[in-house]
Design goal:
315 residues, Rossmann fold, Hypothetical Protein Tm841, Chain: A,domain 3, four-stranded parallel β-sheet, 9 helices, disordered N terminus
């Protein structure tokens, strides 16, 4: 890992205080909390963003898709009025607890020698290593994971509980003696947020079956009941905690320069200006020996990329 730290790290912002998790390690930078960004006067929010840009140069806003629509509209308004390509808006398709974990991983990486474009692009890459789910008392209003009619019917039975994984691949099981969910194939920590569910299935059964290396608990994010369709839940998220592993994963990916704004990026789209490479859709635009990864959307040498990834995950 590079030892040199940027004098002014890129700011990592979240849209509510409960999405700013406690530091994972001593190098985790504090999150900028954009509290009530959709309710405060526009001129005040504009002034806050201008101050962040003056102090940090670039701002990456990590926002849950469960946030009120007014929050997203206000963020786009601010970005447009400031006419700034130095504000990145990142709304990953993760449950709220997973979004909070991803924001903290970016806060860890912000202390390293990564350029703002690479740091912002890293969010899309690291999303694929997050396993997010919940223990639910009902799936009747669950929209983010396919639910069959039998599970819907069982939701109305008193005492029914369901184990659900929403990411990286949907899973749903009814909790019973043989219930199990497939977990990550690499070492992770588990973050648990308990709502109105008092059962210890997540900590007593799921965590040992996933062989987690550590477990921490936190209050349930305010946006979680809306995302999962019920307040009777315990949300969980398995994640990579070590900064060295995160750094190796990000730096093992081929970097390129955005042809529009000139910033270094990884992936097929600049997170700051939203430009794609000119040859992105061209049949002959790919270099020999490389391929486009359908999941991550970036070009890299397949064998070399996999070797580096294995080394990062296994230490």
């Amino acid at each position: 890992m590079g030892d040199g730290e940027p004098r002014v790290p890129t700011a990592i912002a979240v849209t509510s205080a409960d999405m700013a998790l406690p530091p994972q390690d001593e190098r985790t930078l504090p999150a900028v909390v954009l509290q009530d960004v959709d309710r405060r006067p526009l001129e005040h929010v504009l002034a806050d963003f201008q101050t962040l840009l003056d102090q940090h140069g670039h701002v990456i806003v990590v926002c849950s898709q469960a946030a009120p629509r007014g929050v997203e509209r206000r963020l786009h308004t601010v970005r447009g009025l400031l006419e700034s390509d130095r504000i990145a808006l990142f709304r990953p398709s993760l449950p709220p607890l997973g979004v909070a974990v991803l924001a903290r991983q970016l806060r860890q990486l912000a202390s390293c020698d990564l350029s703002p474009g690479v740091l912002a692009s890293a969010g899309r890459l690291l999303t694929h290593y997050v396993h997010a789910g919940a223990l639910l008392g009902s799936v009747a209003r669950l929209d983010h994971v396919p639910v069959d009619l039998k599970a819907h019917a069982r939701s109305w039975m008193p005492g029914s509980q369901f184990g659900v994984v929403a990411h990286p691949a949907p899973q749903l099981v009814r909790i019973g003696p043989e219930a199990a969910l497939e977990g990550p194939e690499f070492g992770t920590w588990l973050l648990v947020a308990k709502g109105q569910h008092l059962t210890d299935w997540v900590t007593g059964t799921l965590a040992p079956s996933w062989r987690v290396q550590g477990l921490r608990e936190m209050p349930l994010p305010a946006e979680s009941p809306g995302w999962w369709g019920t307040g009777r839940l315990t949300e969980f998220c398995a994640y990579l905690p070590d900064l060295s592993v995160l750094y190796q994963l990000v730096t093992s990916v081929r970097q390129s320069v955005c042809h529009w704004c000139g910033i270094d990026v990884i992936g097929d789209r600049c997170v700051f200006c939203s430009a794609t490479p000119p040859d992105h859709d061209a049949p002959g635009g790919r270099s020999p020996g490389h391929r486009t990864d359908p999941a991550l959307g970036h070009r890299r040498d397949t064998a070399l990329g996999r070797r580096r990834e294995r080394r990062a995950l296994t230490g």
